[in-house]
Every structure is written in C-alpha cells, then in structure tokens.
C-alpha cells in the first residue's frame, strides 16, 4: 500500500516504539506513586513535558497532557467558556475548523453561548479585519486553527494574537495539523491555548497536550485525582508521553528536511499530472507543505477513492472524522458554496515513508482513474 493519508494519521516510527517499550514492560509505575518505580515513571513524564514545552516556546507547567487533539480542543473551549462566562458569553471561530471545535461550539450554543462563525475566502483563509469586526466587549474566546486539516491553508495566527493582546478574550489555536512542519512559538504567536496530538507526527495514538498559558483560567473537565496540577484527573499515559517526546525530537531535527521534501513531492505531483494531461486545480493557498487538496472535475468521489485503494494508493476526501458521510466537505463548502467542487476533490497528504518516485506513480494512477470517469469507460 502506498499511503498518502498522513493528515489523517501517521505510522509510528520504530524509534518511538523503542523509546516507549521500557515503560510498557518494565518501568510501568504510576507516576503519582512515591516508590522507586513510580518515581522513574514520574521522571520520564517530566522529561517529556519539558521537551514538548521547549519545542513550542512554553514552560513545562504550561503543558497539560490529554488523550489527543479532540480532548485538547474540548478542554480549551468548554473550559474557557465555563470559567469566563461571567465576563460575557460571546465566542468566535471559523467555518473551516475541525469538528472537535465546531461541534463543541454548537453544544455551547445550545447552552446559551453566542457563537460567531467567520467566513473564509476562496483559499480557505480568514481575514484579520473579519476577526476585528466580530470582536465585542463580551467576547471571551477566539478559536482559529493554525493550518487546515483538509486543504492545508494557514491562518494569520500571529496577527490575530497581536489584535487580541489588549482584549479580554482568550485565543486558542488547534495546531494539530501544523505541528511538525511549522515552527511554533506560543509567545510570538500570542496564543493562550494550543492543541497538539502525537499521532500526526509519527507518535502514538491516545496522547496529546493542551498548552495553557500561565494565568489562564479554565473550568476543570474531569474530576478525580490531582494529576496535571489538578487540571486533568486520571493516571497519566507515561508510555504515550515518552513516545510523544521521541516523535517531537525527531520532528524538530528533521523539520527543515521534511518541509523541503514535501515541497518537492508536491512539485513532482503537479508536474506529472501536467505531463499526463490531467485536468485539476488546487484547493487552498499558503498551505501546510504536506497537504495537497485537488479538484478533479468529473469524478464521483467515493467510487474514485475505492478505485485508488484497489490500485494500492490510500488517499482521502478530507477529514477522516467524516468518513462514510455523503455530505460535502464543510471546509470546501465554506470556500466554494454549493459548487460541484465540494464533491469532486481529494486530499493527498505526504509523510514519512513516501518518496518522489511514489508520488509520480500516484499521479499516474490518478490519471488512470480520472480517465475512467471523464471517458465514460467505467
């Protein structure tokens, strides 16, 4: 299988599994225990927290371990809304967020909060002016994703952070898709809350973190023990944290090389499609380097993906969270309205294990399958 769906999840690196194994088999202590094996687990957890904090320009006490991006998003949104509703009940987000944000916002609306959903342009980007226009005195939270998981478009996070510097609203960004290819410094960005997940950077599933700036007040979402400085109850996932640390260290070392390689892959994809005479257009602009979303006029999306799969190439229609749904992508709908483009676009995402040669073969299979629709030979 030629795997080109790294935006959905990534294969775990052998180095990550190797780092985790001792904490699965030998050093299995509870990090809250005071005996030696517990202290060993605590030391590993603390080391992971320091590494991840340094990676994004934070301090270790600003990192709260979670089960992944969805929990981090939920904790940020519900926590900020509940803890600060005495200051106002207005929230701002965009129409192209991950469902972990959009569905949380919809629930908050049902609970009496007022949510403004910002439009995006045809590239999938919000404007700074739209955020400024939406801001009110009673706005308590703004949530804008760093880079889109379907089309890759980057948002003006640092500019929004500067805009909000003198406003009471907390600023949250879902950086799950951007972590690993973008250089992220939470201070330079001006964010108060940032979500991340290990399985997007060749780490294990089931572990993520929420950056929570010192001084930020969130309502607790789980009750039990006093783990994570009383911010998230429950025994910490030590093997997962160790795996996240190892994946982060590899991603940091390899970032520049990865970005350059992904750019070469995108150029190879476009070049080969052009040589083969395939009609296509690219959705999104100013994109994350590993995501390419292609509009392929005339295809039928689900049969197209199945036919590519049968030829040994795994690509997707966008967010894995909507797999099996016949509804058009909410991201493409926000960008293009009810255009057929929303039903005739595929996402290709590069990652560890892919080569330029693989990408050229992918282009050839894409051309082959597109022709079965455009030439009516299916």
UniProtKB/TrEMBL annotation:
KW Metal-binding (keyword) present: yes
Entry EC no(s): 2.8.1.7
Ranges for domain Aminotransferase class V: 3-362
Domain of life: Bacteria
UniProt cofactor(s): pyridoxal 5'-phosphate
Region forming the signal peptide: none
MF (Gene Ontology): cysteine desulfurase activity; iron-sulfur cluster binding; metal ion binding
Catalytic activity: (sulfur carrier)-H + L-cysteine = (sulfur carrier)-SH + L-alanine
Keywords: Iron, Iron-sulfur, Metal-binding, Pyridoxal phosphate, Transferase
Family: Belongs to the class-V pyridoxal-phosphate-dependent aminotransferase family. NifS/IscS subfamily.
Name this protein carries in UniProt: cysteine desulfurase
Species of origin: Exiguobacterium chiriqhucha RW-2
């Amino acid at each position: 299988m030629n795997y080109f769906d790294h935006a959905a999840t990534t294969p775990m690196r052998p180095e990550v599994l190797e780092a985790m194994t001792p904490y699965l088999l030998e050093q299995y202590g509870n990090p809250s225990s005071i005996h030696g094996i517990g202290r060993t687990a605590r030391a590993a957890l603390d080391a992971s927290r320091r590494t991840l904090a340094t990676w994004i320009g934070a301090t270790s006490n600003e990192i709260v371990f979670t089960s992944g991006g969805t929990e981090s998003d939920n904790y940020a949104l519900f926590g900020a809304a509940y803890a600060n509703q005495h200051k106002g009940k207005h929230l701002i987000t965009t129409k192209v967020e991950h469902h972990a944000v959009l569905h949380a916002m919809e629930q908050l609306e049902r609970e009496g909060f007022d949510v403004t959903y910002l439009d995006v342009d045809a590239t999938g980007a919000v404007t700074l002016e739209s955020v400024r226009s939406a801001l009110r005195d009673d706005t308590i939270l703004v949530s804008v994703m760093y880079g889109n998981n379907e089309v890759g478009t980057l948002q003006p996070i640092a500019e929004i952070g500067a805009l909000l510097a003198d406003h009471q609203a907390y600023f949250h960004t879902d950086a799950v898709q951007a972590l690993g290819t973008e250089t992220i410094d939470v201070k330079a960005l001006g964010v108060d809350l940032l979500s991340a997940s290990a399985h997007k950077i060749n780490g294990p599933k089931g572990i993520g973190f929420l950056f929570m700036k010192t001084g930020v007040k969130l309502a607790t979402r789980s009750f039990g023990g006093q783990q994570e400085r009383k911010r998230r109850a429950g025994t910490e996932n030590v093997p997962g944290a160790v795996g996240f640390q190892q994946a982060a260290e590899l991603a940091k070392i390899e970032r520049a090389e990865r970005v350059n390689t992904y750019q070469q892959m995108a150029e190879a994809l476009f070049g080969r499609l052009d040589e083969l005479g395939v009609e296509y257009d690219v959705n999104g602009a100013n994109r994350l380097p590993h995501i390419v979303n292609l509009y392929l006029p005339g295809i039928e999306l689900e049969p197209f993906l199945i036919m590519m799969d049968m030829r040994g190439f795994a690509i997707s229609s966008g967010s894995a969270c909507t797999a099996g749904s016949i509804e058009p992508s909410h991201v493409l709908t926000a960008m293009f309205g009810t255009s057929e483009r929303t039903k005739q676009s595929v996402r290709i995402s590069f990652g560890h294990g892919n080569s330029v040669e693989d990408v050229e073969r992918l282009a050839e299979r894409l051309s082959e399958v597109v022709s079965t629709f455009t030439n009516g030979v299916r």
